[in-house]
Amino acid sequence: MQDFIENAEPRVVAMMLIAIVLLVSLVEITYLLWPQAKQYRDLHASHQVLEQAVTSNDSLANQLEKIDAEVQDLSRQLHGDMARLPAKQMESFVIGRLQRVSWATEVELLSVQPGSGKQVQNFRESLFEVKLNAHYHDFFEWLQTVNDELGYIVVKKFEIRPEERDALDNPELSLQLTLVSYRMVQDYAS
Question: 28 by DSSP, 3-state: which?
Answer without folding.
Answer: helix
